[in-house]
Write a structure and sequence with these properties.
Length: 572
């Protein structure tokens, strides 16, 4: 691409000529289009006049004297300019009269194509003349009522006069020649104008730019005394003046540089003596830089640790705080089981086998150890979290305005691996119907935990539905989770998470938010997700969390929170 773009001496005239050619071609095309439209209108008007007149005369002759003199009228059409053929067909589309000899007159099928014969039938039926333009001909179709039968007032027999002109081709040829002539004239004028513009441009720009390029090449070759010396006030003159100033500056600085090189030799010894000092200073600088980087890393690590400690602290406190209740509840449940055993002395064989399989005595002895281990572990985690927070020296996170949609989207991204298609079910579709919400003042991470719990439960419900429906038509239904957000009032917003799963029975809905209540198999659910979510929404955000569900129609969770915590509206 060394020779592209070419010099201005050639690109300017080529560009001007190309533009003039485009203008000429566009003008020619517009003139041809306009001329064709005028020709069509002119020929159509002339053909309509001849058709109206001839059809009227023939109608009069057939009505008055049975068509005597009609052959004379048709023969007079032979003198009509550009008329190719004129034929009068009877009601059966048979030739009655023609402007050519009978043996040379074509039949209707040869004269008109099949689709244009339908026009002829419409003209006969509507008794209204018609003129149309085809690719080569101008055709006129006019009805001619023939002689009336005995007892007829209005003749039922209607012939059709067909006039076929070929004058449009000649007019188009003449229009083309006129347009070409005018286009050629305008092209010549444009070419002369382009040559004039190019000549002026060549004198005022190209030659002067050539001088500037030559001076630049000499300067790059080492001729520091070169000057352009262009006169004028245009941009090239300003560039030349700047070039001359630059050349003068380069010349003066080169001379100064040569003088400096002479002084450099005398200063070399002094620089060598300072090299050792600079080396020591550089080593100290590197040491300081390493210390600063390490300090920055520790600061960043402290911020990271503070964030992790904050996220871990809340669930650990929930676990640790509920261990005593869990210990009491488990003892109550075991005591209740033993009471049942004492009350029900006679039990079935299946129940006896189940009790033996469960081994209540082992559970009674092992459960306190498990709870003690959990308590020890949570206490250890609390101590670690406290140590980390003390190490980071950062305050706990505060409420701040956030974008609710970002929290929902981030939660969906974390759960994406569960939304994808699995070996036993199709992918779960997510439908987002987001309203335009303002920033909401909240604990963002805690609300994300609410979204995580509800969406995880929705995925579990859809997987259960898919598993139960295997082999039935219901298995072909899509799995959908719909998330809607909207602003209820100027002070409150609502979030709805709806799935088309199997739904929740009414007797279970009342216990959804109870701690440790779960309908999932052992090992899959803890029963704390919705309980924690309820605390986050209702207690920490002064909001509302409720569930509505019908078996077979899916489940919808409704989350409602205030936009600002200092402007709380009345909850439903």
């Amino acid at each position: 691409m060394k020779h592209f773009p070419p010099p201005l001496r050639y690109t300017i005239p080529a560009t001007l000529l190309a533009l003039s050619a485009l203008v000429s071609a566009y003008s020619l095309q517009k003139e041809l289009s306009l001329g064709h439209r005028r020709n069509v209108e002119k020929v159509t008007d002339a053909v309509r006049f001849v058709g109206d007149r001839t059809a009227g005369i023939l109608t009069y002759l057939y009505r008055r004297n049975g068509g005597n003199g009609s052959e004379l009228i048709m023969s007079q059409l032979q003198d009509e300019a550009n008329l190719r053929i004129g034929v009068l067909f009877n009601e059966h589309n048979q030739v009655m009269l023609s402007t050519v000899r009978r043996n040379q007159t074509p039949t209707l099928d040869k004269l008109l194509p099949r689709e244009e014969q339908q026009r002829l039938e419409r003209v006969r039926r509507d008794r209204t003349g018609q003129v149309y333009v085809s690719d080569e001909w101008v055709v006129a179709l006019y009805p001619v009522p023939l002689s009336a039968q005995a007892g007829e007032v209005i003749p039922s027999r209607v012939g059709v006069l067909v006039l076929q002109y070929d004058s449009l081709r000649a007019l188009q040829q003449r229009t083309l020649m006129d347009a070409l002539r005018r286009s050629l004239e305008s092209s010549v004028v444009l070419a002369v104008l382009c040559i004039g513009v190019w000549y002026v441009f060549d004198k005022s720009v190209t030659l002067r730019a050539k001088r500037l390029v030559a001076a630049t090449n000499r300067l790059s070759a080492g001729d520091l005394a070169v000057r352009v010396g262009l006169r004028g006030s245009d941009e090239l003159a300003q560039i030349a003046e700047a070039f001359d100033q630059m050349a003068s500056m380069i010349q003066s600085k080169t001379e100064a540089l040569e003088q400096s090189q002479e002084n450099l030799a005398t200063a070399h010894a002094e620089v060598s003596s300072q090299a050792a000092q600079l080396s020591r200073a550089l080593q100290e600088l590197r040491t300081t830089q390493t210390q600063l980087i390490q300090t920055e890393k520790m600061s960043s690590l402290g911020q990271l640790v503070a964030g992790i400690a904050h996220e871990i602290n809340n669930p650990v406190n929930f676990i640790h705080g509920n261990l005593q209740h869990l210990r009491e509840y488990s003892q109550d449940l075991l005591g209740l089981v033993y009471r049942y055993q004492q009350e029900c002395l006679h039990t079935s064989a299946d129940l006896q086998a189940y009790l033996k399989q469960v081994d209540l005595e082992f559970i009674e002895s092992d459960l306190p150890q498990i709870l003690n281990s959990i308590e020890t572990g949570t206490e250890r985690i609390r101590q670690i979290v406290l140590t980390l927070r003390n190490f980071s020296r950062l305050d706990e996170a505060e409420m701040k305005p956030v974008d609710i949609h970002e929290g929902i989207d981030s939660t969906l991204m974390i759960l994406q691996h569960r939304l994808n298609a699995q070996s036993d079910r199709p992918a779960i579709q997510i439908i987002k119907q987001y309203d335009n919400l303002p920033p909401v003042e909240c604990y963002a991470s805690q609300l994300n935990q609410v979204f995580m719990n509800i969406l995880s439960n929705a995925i579990d419900a859809l997987e259960t539905k898919c598993m139960d429906a295997q082999g039935t038509d219901a298995s072909l239904q899509p799995l959908i989770i719909t998330i809607r957000t909207h602003q209820l009032t100027p002070e409150r917003i609502a979030i709805q998470i709806h799935d088309n799963g199997p739904g929740i029975p009414e007797n279970i809905q009342a216990r959804l938010f109870d701690p440790f209540f779960t309908t999932k198999p052992v090992g899959k659910g803890t029963g704390l997700g919705l309980s924690i979510s309820y605390q986050i929404v209702v207690e920490k955000h002064k909001g509302l969390l409720k569930c509505s569900s019908c078996p077979g129609e899916g489940t919808c969770f409704w989350i409602e929170i205030p936009i600002e915590q200092h402007s709380l509206g009345t909850m439903d």
